[in-house]
């Protein structure tokens, strides 16, 4: 006597939907990063996720909404990593170093994020302005850095004429350049910026650069 299969529960259906949505976002991230917004094809994303264009539109309504979801998730991941740093238990210098290192590690591990930033800049942030949550996500990360700078300034460890957004820019610029310009830099100078043998050198270099700039003059 064969038993009947248990009916699928609402929890199971929700988990399946979450997995499907996550799979679509994973593939869409690669597609938009490698082909840009205009070059990306929803049909290709559907084929690679073994789903259908109709199903993608069910979850995301359209290509633009899918692209915006990709952008939002990409920024949410880096900002979550930055906010997770336990800076309150570190002295200001160590805290700034740690924030820089976390950004360095994340950008290296997520080259698609760097490509997406480039795609959106090429379009003058045309789509990003439609995602109000991105402002809150990025502001919260800068707030963490601002708190560390305030402590360092009160302690006399940091100069007082610095701005948290400038330090954020300095860290981001270094980390983005290293990943985004890897191939052109190697073609021009014969050096691979992502060579594992020089990784720690560049990671330390970033931290020293930021801490050196923040130091009292």
What does this structure look like?
The structure is a single chain. The chain is an all-alpha fold and 217 residues long. It is built from ten helices and no strands. Helix 4 runs parallel beside helix 7 and helix 5 packs parallel to helix 8 (164-180). The longest helix is centred in the N-terminal third of the chain and has 30 residues, at 10-39. It is globular. The termini are far apart. The mean pLDDT is 88.
* Structural class computed from helices and strand pairing: mainly alpha
The share of residues in helices is over 70%
Radius of gyration: 21 Å
Number of helices: 10
Content of β-strand = under 5%
- Averaged pLDDT, please? 88
Largest sheet, strands/sense/barrel = none
Number of strands: 0
Task: Spell out the helices and strands N to C.
Answer: HHHHHHHHHH
What best-fitting shape do the alpha-carbon axes yield? Answer: globular
Low-confidence stretches: none
Q: Terminal Cα separation, in Å?
A: 84 Å
Pfam families: TetR_C_29 (PF17938), TetR_N (PF00440)
DNA-binding region: 41-60
Keywords: DNA-binding
Domain HTH tetR-type: 18-78
SSE arrangement:
Elements (H helix, E strand, L loop, with lengths): L9 H30 L2 H7 L4 H8 L2 H21 L8 H18 L1 H12 L9 H24 L8 H17 L1 H8 L9 H16 L3
Helix pairs in contact: 1-2, 1-4, 1-6, 3-4, 4-7, 5-7, 5-8, 5-10, 7-8
């Amino acid at each position: 006597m064969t038993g009947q299969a248990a009916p699928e529960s609402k929890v199971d259906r929700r988990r399946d939907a979450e997995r499907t949505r996550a799979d679509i976002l994973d593939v869409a991230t690669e597609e938009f990063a490698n082909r840009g917004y205009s070059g990306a094809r929803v049909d290709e994303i559907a084929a690679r996720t073994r789903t259908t264009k109709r199903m993608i539109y069910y979850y995301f309504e359209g290509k633009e909404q899918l692209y915006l979801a990709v952008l939002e998730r990409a920024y949410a991941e880096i900002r979550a990593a930055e906010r997770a740093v336990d800076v309150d238990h570190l002295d200001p210098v160590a805290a700034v170093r740690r924030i820089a290192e976390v950004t360095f590690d994340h950008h290296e591990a997520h080259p698609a994020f760097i490509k997406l930033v480039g795609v959106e800049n090429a379009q003058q942030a045309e789509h990003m302005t439609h995602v109000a949550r991105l402002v809150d996500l990025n502001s919260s990360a800068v707030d963490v850095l601002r708190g560390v700078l305030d402590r360092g300034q009160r302690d006399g460890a940091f100069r007082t004429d610095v701005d948290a957004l400038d330090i954020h820019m300095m860290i981001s610029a270094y980390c983005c350049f290293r990943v985004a310009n890897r191939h052109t830099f190697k073609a021009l100078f014969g050096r691979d910026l992502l060579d594992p043998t020089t990784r720690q050198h560049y990671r330390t270099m970033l931290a020293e650069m930021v801490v050196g700039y923040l130091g009292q003059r």
